[in-house]
Amino acid sequence: MSIDYEAEYNNRARVPEHPALIAGWAADAAAYRDAAGGELGVPYGPSERMKLDLFGDGGGPLAVFIHGGYWQGLDRSSFSHLARGLVSRGVTVAMPSYDLCPSVSVADIVDQIRAACAYLWRRYERPMAVAGHSAGGHLAACMLATSWPSVAAGLPAGLVSSGYGISGLYELEPLVGTSVNTALKLDAAEARRLSPLAWPAPRGRVFDAVVGGAESAEYLRQSRAVTQVWGDAGVRTRFEALEDANHFTVVAPLADPQSAMTRRLASLAEAAGKP
């Protein structure tokens, strides 16, 4: 039976109430910034969108959260509130934005997030846990599987010690024939080249793939696939489907200091800083 990839990857159609959920993100994020302050708009590269926000005192473990939007929408300003849980546990959280397709390519975005992580290493000189939602989950997996010494001199192999993908995309080829690809402009070869599932597995490191239990079969398959393939190759992987969560509600636990998601990501960030 053929798979309707257009339907499987059209998250907004699957969740009709998504406009209210996205508006809620923006309102909660603005309220958190007003209350928490933070160091906002820190440049890590030359373009206007190559900036990041920092929350926390900078003295403890370090985590990065990468926003989603199918590499073509949203920015860090809608997700500030998701730092609340981690900051309350002593973790410094960096939230980068990046340029969007079609103005740049997906490959360019991967390089931009590498630049953000390299900036954070040079600033704090400590390894980090990298998390991301949707397209951000793809980017988190790419960061974990990156050979950092080949990116720039002086970057350590263990710059990113763990990854946490929330409803991530690890195999991009199914997107090629969908409307998502109108802006991405991927052909099959480029989609495969940019699929972390096809990269050498980051053996010895940690990767969690969490997905909403109410998401499409393809999103569930992608998260299972990366944990199985990387797990077989020596990555310490973990799969979890959050009951009743959809593509837009699945990230909500990060705002709660006591949630299992926050506690797990905090433990990964803490472990990143240990020798």
From TrEMBL:
Alpha/beta hydrolase fold-3 domain ranges (all copies): 64-247
InterPro entries xrefs: AB_hydrolase_3, AB_hydrolase_fold, GDXG_lipolytic_enzyme
Keywords, alphabetical: Hydrolase
Pfam families: Abhydrolase_3 (PF07859)
Domain of life assignment: Bacteria
GO molecular function: hydrolase activity
PANTHER family the UniProt entry points to: AB HYDROLASE SUPERFAMILY PROTEIN C4A8.06C (PTHR48081), KYNURENINE FORMAMIDASE (PTHR48081:SF33)
Name the UniProt record assigns to this protein: Alpha/beta hydrolase
